[in-house]
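User: Okay, second chain of the day. Same drill as before: sequence in, structure tokens out.
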Amino acid sequence: MSSAGDADVASWDLVYRPRKLPRWAVAAAVVVLAIHITFGLLLTIDDVGVRNLGGSDQVAIILIGVLVAGAILLLTRPRLRVGPQGVEVRNLATTRLFEWDRVLGLTYPESGFGAWLLFPSDEHITVLAVQAGDGQRAIDTMARFRELEERYRGTVRPGH
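Assistant: Same drill. Structure tokens below.
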């Protein structure tokens, strides 16, 4: 049985997700959640906590931990997809598709957290999926992007 998502994957020539960032995000979320659960449970112990705190305060601290951990897990979302229809960038909360006629290229700035997808008028958006921390894998993705860009735009990447 094939789902709509399977058909969608077949239409992209390049699908790239960072390798290190999601691992660090999951580890950080687990640590944050463990700390909030621990402090939430220890909050009403007479020798440790303040005496006027109760069960609702424990639940609140644990729920805050769940919210913070959930926010950290947004770092597992970044993705770059490239195909005949254009370049799709999914960062923390949004997914946007840019047609090839709007895209000038993909570059990695001297100092930055992720690659930049370049547009006319010196505009860009950060592509969190492509990061220097992924090393050769990210370099290979940049090279593959440029191959696909040349195929679909029909032009050589402009100089910057």
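Helices lie at 4-10, 20-42, 55-73, 136-153.

User: Thanks, on to the next one.
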